[in-house]
Amino acid sequence: xxxxxxxxxxxxxxxxxxxxxxxxxxxxxxxxxxxxxxxxxxxxxxxxxxxxxxxxxxxxxxxxxxxxxxxxxxxxxxxxxxxxxxxxxxxxxxxxxxxxxxxxxxxxxxxxxxxxxxxxxxxxxxxxxxxxxxxxxxxxxxxxxxxxxxxxxxxxxxxxxxxxxxx
Length: 167
Known about the structure:
With about 170 residues, the protein is α+β, with helices and mostly antiparallel strands. It has two domains: about 1-60; about 70-160, no CATH class. It is about 40% helix and about 30% strand. It has helices at about 10-35, 40-60, 145-155; strands spanning about 1-5, 70, 75-80, 85-90, 90-100, 105-115, 125-130, 130-140, 160. The strands form two sheets. Strands 7-8-6-5-9 form a five-stranded mixed beta sheet. Strand 5 (about 90-100) and strand 6 form a beta hairpin.
């Protein structure tokens, strides 16, 4: 089973930002052609247009980050959140949903736990009992529902799936 990242919202925001940027740059160009009394308005329009063009480009580039999460009976392939791992379930200490408390609420992160002997690229963001945990993705960023994710992890990871919270 393959999990998919939901990046439709970021693409829509990128499109809106780029649309505003183009409109602001065009209107600023028209004001520049009209005359010098509107110089401040022109500068403000070009400045905001450039800013929103940059924001739109950054949002669009964020949707191009590699994300691959494939579960099977034999193991898993993960390229997400700065973690690159391809291996069998025997190499995995566990996979869990970890709550992270933020000022604006709690997020549930999918975390892959590996022992120190297992090679994986990326910097672990969680640690407990000599294990290192790689944050893969925030559950709400997936296309699949939290229940579908939990069911798939129970099916493929079996007892390795531990979750202190309901996914």
